TrEMBL record, chain A:
GO molecular function list: 4 iron, 4 sulfur cluster binding; 5'-3' DNA helicase activity; ATP binding; damaged DNA binding; hydrolase activity, acting on acid anhydrides, in phosphorus-containing anhydrides; metal ion binding
Localisation per UniProt entry: Nucleus
PROSITE patterns given in the database record: DEAH_ATP_HELICASE, HELICASE_ATP_BIND_2
Cofactor(s), by name: [4Fe-4S] cluster
Keywords annotated in UniProt: 4Fe-4S, ATP-binding, DNA damage, DNA repair, DNA-binding, Helicase, Hydrolase, Iron, Iron-sulfur, Isomerase, Metal-binding, Nucleotide-binding, Nucleus
Any one GO BP annotation for this protein: nucleotide-excision repair
PANTHER family reported in the protein's UniProt record: DNA REPAIR DEAD HELICASE RAD3/XP-D SUBFAMILY MEMBER (PTHR11472), GENERAL TRANSCRIPTION AND DNA REPAIR FACTOR IIH HELICASE SUBUNIT XPD (PTHR11472:SF1)
Record field: transmembrane: none
Organism of provenance: Capsella rubella
Protein name (database record): DNA 5'-3' helicase
Broad enzyme group: isomerase
UniProtKB/TrEMBL annotation, chain B:
First and last residues of each zinc finger (C4-type): 302-319
Name this polypeptide is given: General transcription factor IIH subunit
InterPro entries: C1-like_sf, Ssl1-like, TFIIH_C1-like_dom, TFIIH_SSL1/p44, VWF_A, vWFA_dom_sf, Znf_C2H2_type, Znf_RING
Keywords assigned: DNA damage, DNA repair, Metal-binding, Nucleus, Transcription, Transcription regulation, Zinc, Zinc-finger
Predominant localisation class: nucleus
Organism field: Capsella rubella
UniProt superkingdom: Eukaryota
Transmembrane regions listed in the UniProt entry: none
Positions with biased composition (Acidic residues): 12-24
Length: 786, 421
């Protein structure tokens, strides 16, 4: 359908549009007009992506004189593919209606591992080794050598791409990763380098967050994007964590050992070069003296990760004298490693600011701040000079240099924390030195500064006023949209108490008799009406564990197909499952449904998920036990029959004794005036919302959500849930016991199984046609029926 | 409403903690039914009799279905000779008491009514019963045309045990129905109360097998929507529905009584050899071929092999001839030429005038069409004869009578109709 939003003609590839999509577009358009940043929350399953894409591409078409570029950031490769597929539909539609002038070039960009077509390179198992294998075949000196020695293996795809040089261009169109690979294979051009090259010409780029937020990667990939770009962060509820991770480094004992080995190898290489090709080291020295831009004269294939510090913090000066010579630099690094080794030997937990760390480093190891700052660039230059291609082996030393550069550059917003062992396993020494960033706004600031509009959007951004503070920016639009629905297809409940029983349970009879004698009845009602919670003082109470178990036993017998349970942590999940196993609750569950458990092992979890889906498909029914903040909670959908019910056991607070978290909380309080409690609750609730939101991915879907913890009934917790969940959380469902929840669930499932009218009745219009929109444009949006 | 409900259950907790288990079965039935919530007041504050909007709704549904059938084409071929297996799930879940007194009793009750209705509407068809218990499917009765036999067998086996297995049931039914002649429509109607199925193999293969052998599978769930059931129905062209309460369950079951539209492959005309047996003489003694029992009188004789059978319609066990009686054929006829659905008359004042002329009464039952307070009540009109009918007569005409009284009276001699006027 084609309609107008103010002065922009929007091309929307479907015949109907949801009212919230229309509103979303209006807000987005205003933000684009104002050339400002915006924050938009809209529930999953309402077609956020297509609304975004369709408005921005239409906006571009309506302003032919100042074409904007769309940079769309996703969290995972899977989401990237989904986005590109939608864009393809949209693009086809626009081309059909507007002809070739609507043609755009849209590409997805990912790592070599996802784009490479060279079978030999792809044989490497992880990302870093694929990168290294590629460099081995494409580095400029390798290629130079091969002209003399034909035995050296090169990559044909890259050679062809180089030969085509400026002519290697992608024709307009939408390219998913798969399309890029197919195109590359066809033409014999390397898809990875082609895509990298096309970034500057493309109208739409879809890639991962890191390519924009992590300064190491962004410096290479995204430095050529013009200001007139619209940057979209999709599923951005965890964006602050991504920003922080981009600037955090941790060093372990293993890292130091590896770095030492790397240094030895570098040392050997230096000696070898001294003997054979001393001129090369000399040339490098001269270059550093002159302070040439370090990578200025490098060809594309030799590029490495850029400096880990943010662009405006990097000094444009010559490398300090004491590390210009390769040997001296190696000595400096060796001293640094030694110093770090000493620090790791500590018996106590230590917390330090970067300033004091640098000064003690200076006094004990004689390394200055400025030297530290240049470590990363100097290492890179050295490795290029030494023509080292197997970069994956040199990761430890790179990590150490990362650390050095960051600690040398930043004085505020960071802290260094040294822990001799993991808090949860105090007898196993596992020292770790962490440089942790506390300020999410640091990494994202250059993005806000550089680009005209940044759109942050997700299904869960509540409370929406906290994000601008965390990321320190001022949005021109920040709004939360509700979901218009033909039927109440989600049913959130807060469960606070266990079952209300009429009959005595013979298992507990002797126990209670001994303790309470004739006051047996009272005991029963107390024990079974016990409030449920994962609060620290209550979580190990056998009554709570039993009540949680009983809830699940009852639920699996009335909920069809898939049920997902989220626990607050792995250790809690292990504990509770063990207890359920002992008390026979697990067996009762297994009578109804098969049980699958998420583990920390990715392969195992994938297998469990796969079997879980099969069990749901074939009607056997299954329960999946998972952990909030785990891999499953973040990226896996449990839509349709794969998740008819999700139970959130407890409030998923972060591990509050973690030193890093405490340091961050302190920083947030001092810098942004965000109270510790507020931040912790906000963080826990967004995780909880994320977990329960897995269950519903479209409007035709339905599902129940149970928040099993009495703390959810408190206003301060509840109010931080996103609006689209809150609007379905009726007052009557706020303080339920197990049997009441069962009753509600039964009725809900029966109601949802009835056939329903997709378009909605007159009162609540949920699918708008073109005429509806035209009518609305006349009367104003306020009349829209919700 | 649920707010109220919540408060009610909350009160219950506070007050009768001690004697909670003392709620008698009869009392709980009222608590669960909450019939008081259905009471409504009219404008003057008087209590209205229980609102029958639910019934109107059911009517509406039926009308809709008829309309859609009419829209699809004036002449739909229908499978008149149906071979239907009714599968009843007697697994653990059937013992649940969310339907009173228990799911199993409610299912049996309504299946009984359904079997009678089914034979009434499809006299040429045959039914068999299968039950699922302990994860195994058992044949209760083989295909046959006598409702009494089926009902007797069904009522004798009411107990719920063990797991449920959809695959076993489908395999068994499929095996039974594979011997059915090609002109017959194979159908299975599953009443499923469990929420999972414990199968010995891959159920997807079985579903494909059913699809290949043109077995139309329909499922009525008793608790919630299950993916596998939905998938099964979609694949095989059946209906899937979930009952909300007992009344709804009955409606859903009865929806399966009229013959479904014929599957395209079977739509080719086919000659079927049938025998019209004569009723055996009173007092003559013979051993019937179906029960192997000596019977005096009562029974039919196969015109080809002279074997004795007890009930019609059936298939002769000796020579395999289809045995029917002529009224059976005649009764099946109306499915092919249904009466066009009546049009609803909007309750607008502008129409009042025309209705006054007609005396404001239903042409069928002669009752006044005015509802409470002398306001025009809802009514319908026949497209051909333009007579008005009340809603009750509408259902009666379409579902039992199969003739429009208005149209029938038009064809009378002119003098008679003049006299009437």
């Amino acid at each position: 359908m084609i309609f107008k939003i103010e002065d922009v003609t929007v091309y929307f590839p479907y015949d109907n549009i949801y009212p919230e999509q229309y509103e979303y577009m209006i807000e987005l358009k205003r933000a684009l007009d104002a050339k400002g940043h915006c924050l938009l929350e809209m529930p999953t399953g309402t077609g956020k992506t297509i609304a975004l894409l369709s408005l921005i591409t239409s906006y571009r078409l309506s302003r032919p004189d100042s074409p904007i570029k769309l940079v769309y950031c996703t969290r995972t490769v899977h989401e990237m593919e989904k986005t590109l597929a939608e864009l393809k539909v949209l693009h086809d539609y626009q081309v059909r209606h507007l002809g070739t002038q609507a043609k755009i070039l849209a590409i997805g960009l990912s790592s070599r591992k996802n784009l490479c077509v060279n079978t030999k390179v792809l044989a490497a198992e992880n990302r870093d080794s694929v990168d290294a294998a590629c460099r081995k075949r494409t580095a400029s000196w390798v290629r130079a050598l091969s002209t003399e020695n034909p035995n050296i293996e090169l990559c044909d795809y890259f050679e062809n791409y180089e030969k085509a040089a400026e002519n290697a261009l992608l024709p307009p169109g939408v390219y998913t990763l798969e399309d890029l690979r197919a195109f590359g294979k066809n033409c014999g051009w390397c898809p990875y380098f082609l895509a990298r090259h096309m970034v500057q010409f493309a109208n739409v780029i879809v890639y991962s967050y890191q390519y924009l937020l992590d300064p190491k990667v962004a410096g290479i990939i995204s430095k050529e994007l013009q200001k007139e770009s619209v940057v979209v962060f999709d599923e951005a509820h965890n964006i602050d964590n991504v920003c922080i991770e981009a600037l955090s480094v941790s060093v372990r004992r293993v890292t130091l050992e590896g770095a030492n080995r790397n240094l030895n190898k570098i040392r050997q290489e230096i000696d070898r070069f001294k003997a054979t090709d001393a001129g090369r080291l000399r040339a490098e020295y001269n270059r550093l003296v002159e302070g040439l831009a370090l990578r200025g004269d490098l060809s594309g294939s030799d590029q490495w990760l850029a400096n880990p510090a943010l662009p405006h913090d990097i000094l444009k000066e010559a490398v300090p004298g004491n590390i210009r010579r390769a040997e001296h630099f190696v000595h400096v690094l060796r001293r640094l490693l030694q110093y770090l080794g000493v620090r790791l030997d500590t018996e106590n937990v230590e917390k330090e600011s970067p300033v004091s760390f640098v000064s003690s480093l200076n006094s004990q190891a004689g390394i200055e701040q400025k030297t530290l700052k240049f470590c990363y660039d100097r290492l890179q230059s050295l490795m290029l000079t030494l023509e080292i291609t197997d970069t994956d082996e040199f990761l430890p030393i790179q990590t150490v240099c990362d650390f050095a550069t960051l600690v040398g550059t930043y004085a505020r917003g960071f802290s260094i924390i040294i822990e001799p062992y993991d808090e949860r396993m105090p007898h196993i020494p596992d020292p770790i030195l962490q440089l942790s960033c506390h300020d999410a706004s640091l990494a994202i600031k250059p993005v806000f500064d550089r680009f005209q509009s940044v759109v942050i959007t997700s299904g869960t951004l509540s409370p929406i006023d906290l994000y601008p503070r965390l990321l320190s920016f001022t949005p021109v639009v920040s709004r939360s949209f509700k979901m218009s629905m033909t039927r109440d297809c989600i049913c959130p409940m807060v469960l606070t108490r266990g079952r209300y029983v009429y009959k005595t349970n013979p298992d507990h009879l002797p126990y209670c008799l001994v303790l309470y004698g004739f006051t047996l009845w009272v005991v029963f009602f107390f024990s079974d009406q016990l409030p449920v919670s994962t609060k620290f003082d209550m979580r190990s109470d056998p009554g709570v564990v039993r009540n949680y178990g009983k809830l699940l036993v009852e639920m699996v017998s009335i909920v069809p197909d898939g049920v997902v349970c989220f626990f607050v942590s792995y250790s809690y999940m292990d504990g509770i499952i063990a207890t359920w196993n002992e008390t026979g609750i697990l067996k009762e569950i297994m009578q109804q449904k098969l049980v699958f458990i998420e583990t920390q092992d990715v392969v195992e979890t994938t297998l469990a998920l796969d079997n879980y889906r099969r069990a749901c498909d074939c009607g056997r029914g299954a329960v999946f036990f998972s952990v909030a903040r785990g891999k499953v909670a973040e990226g896996i959908d449990f839509d349709r029959h794969y998740g008819r019910l999700v139970v959130m056991y407890g409030v998923p607070f972060q591990y509050t004794l973690s030193k890093i978290l405490l340091a961050r909380l302190e920083y947030l309080r001092d810098t942004f005036q965000i109270k510790e409690g507020d931040f912790l609750t906000f963080d826990a609730l967004r995780q909880a919302a994320q977990c329960v939101g897995r269950v519903i991915r479209s409007k035709a879907d339905y599902g129940m959500m149970i928040f099993a913890d009495k703390r959810y009934s408190r206003h301060d917790k509840r109010s931080k849930l996103p609006g689209w969940i809150l609007s379905h959380l009726r007052d009557a469902h706020l303080n339920l016991s197990t049997d009441m929840a069962i009753h509600i669930a039964r009725e809900f499932l029966r109601k949802m199984a009835q056939p329903y009218d997709k378009a909605g009745t007159m009162g609540r219009k949920t699918l708008l046609t073109q005429e509806d929109l035209e009518k609305m444009a006349e009367t104003g949006v306020q009349d829209m029926a919700y | 409403m649920s707010n109220q409900r919540k408060r009610l259950s909350g009160e219950r907790e506070d007050e009768d903690d001690e004697d909670a288990e003392g709620i008698g079965e009869w009392e709980r039935a009222y608590v669960d039914d909450r019939s008081w919530e259905e009471l409504q007041e009219d404008e003057s504050g008087l209590l209205r009799p229980i609102d029958n909007s639910a019934i109107y709704h059911a009517q509406y549904r039926r009308r809709l279905r008829m309309l859609s059938a009419a829209a699809a084409g004036t002449r739909i071929q229908k499978g008149l000779i149906r071979y239907l297996y009714i599968v009843i799930d007697f697994s653990r879940a059937a013992a649940e008491t969310d339907f009173r007194p228990s799911r199993i009793a409610v299912m049996a009750k309504h299946v009984e009514a359904f079997i009678r209705e089914f034979f009434d509407q499809n006299p040429l068809s045959q039914v068999g019963l299968v039950s699922i218990k302990n994860g195994v499917a058992h044949t209760l009765t083989d295909l046959g045309g006598s409702p009494e036999t089926h009902i007797k067998e069904l009522m004798g086996k009411l107990e719920a045990l063990g797991d449920s297995s959809l695959q076993n049931a489908l395999e068994l039914v499929n095996e039974h129905l594979s011997q059915v002649p090609s002109y017959g429509h194979r159908e299975v109607l599953i009443l499923y109360s469990a929420l999972c199925t414990c199968d010995p193999g891959d159920i997807m293969d079985t579903i494909q097998k059913c699809k290949k052998s043109k077995l139309r599978c329909s499922v009525i769930g008793l608790s919630a929507e299950m993916f596998i059931c939905k998938h099964l129905c979609q694949e095989t062209g059946g209906l899937y529905s979930v009952a909300v309460d007992e009344v709804h369950l009955k409606d859903l079951l009865l929806e399966h009584a009229p013959p479904p539209p014929a599957i395209a492959e079977f739509a080719i005309s086919n000659l079927i050899k049938m025998g019209f047996p004569q009723r055996a003489a009173e007092g003559s003694m013979a051993i019937c071929s179906c029960h192997k029992e000596v019977k005096i009188g009562a029974g039919y004789m196969c015109p080809r092999c002279k074997a004795r059978v007890c009930d019609l319609p059936t298939e002769c066990t000796i020579c395999g001839l289809t045995l029917v009686s002529s009224p059976h054929l005649a009764r099946s006829y109306h499915h092919l030429f249904p009466i066009a659905p009546f049009d609803e008359v909007p309750a607008l004042s502008s129409l009042n005038d025309s209705r006054k002329d007609l005396g404001k009464s239903c042409f069928g039952c002669q009752q006044s069409l005015n509802g409470a307070g002398n306001k025009p009540g809802p009514c319908v009109t026949c497209r051909k004869c333009k007579h008005y009918f009340c809603l009750d007569c509408d259902i009666y005409i379409h579902e039992s009578l199969h003739n429009c009284p208005g149209c029938e009276s038009i064809h009378r001699p002119k003098s008679v109709s003049l006299m009437e006027e």
